[in-house]
């Protein structure tokens, strides 16, 4: 390929796919297009289009979300630089190439559908799938780079797009909107899909993605505007808007409408198994496989919350590298900021709630709090994972002392070594298996790419943005109060926050988004579209409150006679300090571990869009670099 690295699918089309779990056939051509003979021989009947559409699902995976952000304690590894603003222009960025690779497969199906001799309605779901994924991969590129060259047809070595200038972000967004309208028109309703089609796309998935895009672009234009666009002449992709491009108000109105349609479809419901699994029920949403993965014997079929997901299977498609060490690494641990963002049982933040029990003991801050915090609870004895490596895995219905497991698997946070890259202060259990038949590296739970909780958050945020910072209790009850109820937190109402001048509806809805979606690859995008990334990311990263608490003197229960905390190993804050641009978040108490100083962090508006890969610019001299890179 002489310009953009668009990899071309070969054997996957000629062999076909038996289902969306199959991910083989990775051989690709980098230098020449698929022959017209093989294309013509392949796209002959409905089954060919179904197989090609199934292949498109294999281009999604497990996202590496939120590490090094203001909410993540995984910042001490020198290679993890993004949240610090220390990333550099990458000569060879796989995200760029992989998304164009995937776009060619989608375009090929769309182009061949125009030549199909049969009834167009019988291949409509496959074509709708292709339009969805064409939107999905353009959106991936948009979020990372801003404006890019639109790939809306199958290209070969002579295609003018390979030496084209970048389209503006507005032109790309408009293309995505139009593609999603096509997907909505062609995809089936989720209610018509059976269990055998779990993971396949529905019109509600397309509506949800459109709602996400419209909220993203509507708030980006409202708060960021053209600041990261460049002039399109010397830097960046410029700010050209196509005819008919919607206004901010129109985008937010459509986002709310699309979200409401999905919420009202009846096809999805929030995971809420408190009665069967207790307060820890949300832990099991994110490691759900078959009945052996949870005490209630629930399977993936019992999860009605995921609207669009990457489907994994122990026999056919396990979670691949580079994320196959998930359970062992426990990469999603919280900062002090995130811990204090979680609300108390009465629905109020820690600085205002009579329910908050402070930091004096090692677990007091977890009392009377949001159930979603339980994934960080220290010193709790729980099952390990696997057959014989770390703990032995869950034996539901058997007491620990009767299980025969000698491995002491309790989270004892690292409070002694700042050189350890993860789990300093707190450890996280989101996306962690405890299944007896799963060693780390063989986890096979599905990954949520869009879930109903996010759609409810979109509805609430679009509403408060449209209404100048206000939202009715009825709209809150329709959306985020459902999330708070299942998390054991009091409802958000106008009366609840009225006595507290530091609390706003917009701030509280943004809080809820951060809490609910932590570790799912949203935080950086949210901070950028709200244009508060420098203020939020360039703060001290802090974790456990040490001074005057039990942590300061406690013995390590897994290492008797040794303290948990090593005095002098970490810097401690010397005075209370705000860690956010939102006044409604609690200040960091004095005596808290400072994991990363603000002076180490230099995230700026330059980082709102990443650098165009340098090798792509060499291949196509018409690609202008983003401002500041």
Automatic annotation (TrEMBL):
Domain of life of the organism encoding this protein: Bacteria
What sequence ranges are listed for the domain SusD-like N-terminal?
84-212
Subcellular compartments: Cell outer membrane
Q: Main site of residence? A: membrane
Pfam families, per database record: SusD-like_3 (PF14322), SusD_RagB (PF07980)
Q: Which keywords, in A-to-Z order, does the entry hold?
A: Cell outer membrane, Membrane, Signal
Where is each RagB/SusD domain found? Answer: 304-629
Per its UniProt record, what InterPro entries does this chain match?
Answer: SusD-like_N, SusD_RagB_dom, TPR-like_helical_dom_sf
> Per its UniProt record, what PROSITE patterns does this chain match?
PROKAR_LIPOPROTEIN (PS51257)
Annotated signal sequence range:
1-23
Family, similarity comment: Belongs to the SusD family.
**Protein name stated in the entry:** RagB/SusD family nutrient uptake outer membrane protein
């Amino acid at each position: 390929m002489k310009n953009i690295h668009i990899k071309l699918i070969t054997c996957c089309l000629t062999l076909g796919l038996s289902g969306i779990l199959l991910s083989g056939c990775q051989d690709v051509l980098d230098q020449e297009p698929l022959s017209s003979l093989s294309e013509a021989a392949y796209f002959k009947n409905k089954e060919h289009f179904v197989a090609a559409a199934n292949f498109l699902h294999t281009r999604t995976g497990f996202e590496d979300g939120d590490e090094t952000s203001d909410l993540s304690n995984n910042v001490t590894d020198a290679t993890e630089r993004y949240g610090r603003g220390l990333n550099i222009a990458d000569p060879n960025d796989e995200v760029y190439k992989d998304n164009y690779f995937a776009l060619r497969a989608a375009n090929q199906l769309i182009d061949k559908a125009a030549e199909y001799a049969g009834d167009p309605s019988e291949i409509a779901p496959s074509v709708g799938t292709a339009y969805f994924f064409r939107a999905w991969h353009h959106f991936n590129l948009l979020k990372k780079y801003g404006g890019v060259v639109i790939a809306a047809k199958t290209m070969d070595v002579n295609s003018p797009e390979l030496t084209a200038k970048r389209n503006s972000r507005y032109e790309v967004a408009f293309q995505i909107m139009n593609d999603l309208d096509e997907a909505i028109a062609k995809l089936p309703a989720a209610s018509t899909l059976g269990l055998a089609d779990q993971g396949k796309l529905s019109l509600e998935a397309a509506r949800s993605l459109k709602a996400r895009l419209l909220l993203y672009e509507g708030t980006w234009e409202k708060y960021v505007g053209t600041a990261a666009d460049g002039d399109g002449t010397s830097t960046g992709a410029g700010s050209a808007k196509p005819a008919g491009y919607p206004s901010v108000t129109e985008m937010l109105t459509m986002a709310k409408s699309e979200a409401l349609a999905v919420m009202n479809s009846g096809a999805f419901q929030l995971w809420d198994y408190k009665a069967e699994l207790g307060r820890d029920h949300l832990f099991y949403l994110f490691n759900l496989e078959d009945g052996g993965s949870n005490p209630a014997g629930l399977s993936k079929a019992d999860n009605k919350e995921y609207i669009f997901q990457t489907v994994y299977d122990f026999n056919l498609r396990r979670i691949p590298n580079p994320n196959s060490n998930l359970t062992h690494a426990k990469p999603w641990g919280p900062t002090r900021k995130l811990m204090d963002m979680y609300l108390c049982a009465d629905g109020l933040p820690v600085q205002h709630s009579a329910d908050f029990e402070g930091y004096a003991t090692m677990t007091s801050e977890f009392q009377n709090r949001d159930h979603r915090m339980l994934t960080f609870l220290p010193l709790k004895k729980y099952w390990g994972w696997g057959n014989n490596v770390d703990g032995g895995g869950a034996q539901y219905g058997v007491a620990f002392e009767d299980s025969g497991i000698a491995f002491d698997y309790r989270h004892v946070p690292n409070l002694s070594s700042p050189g350890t890259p993860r789990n300093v202060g707190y450890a996280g259990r989101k996306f962690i298996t405890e299944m007896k038949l799963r060693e780390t590296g063989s986890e096979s739970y599905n990954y949520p790419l869009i879930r109903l909780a996010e759609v409810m958050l979109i509805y609430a945020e679009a509403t408060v943005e449209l209404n100048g910072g206000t939202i009715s209790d009825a709209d809150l009850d329709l959306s985020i109060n459902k999330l708070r109820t299942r998390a054991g937190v009091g409802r958000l109402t106008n009366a609840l926050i009225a006595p507290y001048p530091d609390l706003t509806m917009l701030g509280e809805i943004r809080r809820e988004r951060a809490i609910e979606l932590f570790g799912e690859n949203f935080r950086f995008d949210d901070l950028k579209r709200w244009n508060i990334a420098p203020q939020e990311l360039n703060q001290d990263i802090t974790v456990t409150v040490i001074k005057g608490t039990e942590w300061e003197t406690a013995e390590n229960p897994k290492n008797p006679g040794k303290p948990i905390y090593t005095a002098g190993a970490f810097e401690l804050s010397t005075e209370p300090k705000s860690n956010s641009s939102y006044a409604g978040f609690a200040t960091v108490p004095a005596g808290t571990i400072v994991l990363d100083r603000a002076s180490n962090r230099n995230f700026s508006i330059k980082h709102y869009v990443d650098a165009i890969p340098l090798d792509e610019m060499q291949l196509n001299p018409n690609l202008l670099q983003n401002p500041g890179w």
